[in-house]
Amino acid sequence: MQGHIRKRGKGSWTVVIDLGRDPTTGKRKQLWRSVRGSKREAEALLAQLLHQRDMGIDAPPGRVTVGQFLERWLSDYAQTNVAPSTLRRYRQLIHCHLLPALAGIPLSKLRPLHIQQAYSLILAKGRSARTALHCHRVLREALQHALKWQLIARNPADAVEPPRPGRQEIRTLDPDGVRRLLRAADGTPFAALVHLAVMTGLRQGELLGLRWQDVDLEAGMVHVQQTAQWLPGHGVVFRPPKTHRSARPVALSPATREILRDHRRQQLEQRLSLGPAYSDHDLVFATPIGTPMDPSNLRRAWRHIVQAAGLDACRFHDLRHAHATLLLHQGVHPKVVSERLGHSSVTITLDTYSHVLPGLQAQAVAPLDRLLGLR
């Protein structure tokens, strides 16, 4: 018997859950709970208690705290369903910001006011509105699973307004700045990497995970099939792209194809010179001995390249933005730009690079005067 409901009197019910037999005594164990209300409420409690029993939550059923649930959600759901770097970020947000404010509250008694106060506490500690917004997204996702698992009747995070960070204008490089960076990178071990970043808009993880088997120099195409992520204590791990749009073909310019051919030739010469000492992972961008590249080494090299180019603060990720804005300024359709960047929709591209569009609109309407004979 899994569990059942007994009517005690008018508006009163008993919910009984079978907990199996005690391994020591062999006696049958049951959990009894009283409910005052409708039969539907008793049935909802029965389903909730059965699910908590099946999840193996080590707390009296019906009294699971937010902290216990979030820890269980991390281990039972997030650990097997999100990327390692995402899991690490979830743990950081939960342990540093959400648990200090919400851990001891019973999950069934969590209310929107508790959550709103938690966000106020995050801001009071000097953290940004963006951090509070990330906490809201993680908590809402976790509570959505609690709703599906019948641990709660509704998601209290739905009724909360998280802090809204101000819009951050992305930093872009003009053509002169891009040329200076390419000249500064020329002659370094990272020249081909910087060039490919500028000319394709690939993310850093996509570049460091790129294999020669994913590159077709004859057709002038690279196929994004995996990404490289650095995890403390584990080193580099390779994962499939996050979405089906991230797994994409990206066309190469003729100059880029030649640069990759030279890079491949140099890499093969290095492999021959090292012999068995070379650890071949088929990576386009690897260490001198063929192993996956540590992103911290790229960051150090990038700082030197930026300084040599005489530029102010410039992130490696800004090369991705530079690729997009250069294409848009050349009149390339935003849908094509979106596909090259691997955005989930063209809306993201238009929203991210909206600062470029006013100038493009002016360019677009100017020919109408000539077409209609107005100028």
What do these coordinates show?
The chain is mainly alpha-helical and 375 residues long. It folds into three domains: 3-55, no CATH class; 66-159, DNA polymerase, domain 1; 175-320, Intergrase catalytic core (hpI Integrase, Chain A, Orthogonal Bundle). Helices cover 50% and strands 12% of the residues. The chain has 14 helices and eight strands. The protein has helices at residues 39-55, 66-81, 84-102, 112-124, 129-148, 175-185, 191-200, 204-208, 254-274, 295-309, 318-329, 334-341, 346-352, 357-371, and strands at 3-9, 12-21, 28-36, 215-216, 221-223, 227-231, 235-239, 249-251. It has a three-stranded antiparallel beta sheet, covered by helices on one side. A hairpin with a 4-residue loop joins β4 and β5 (221-223).
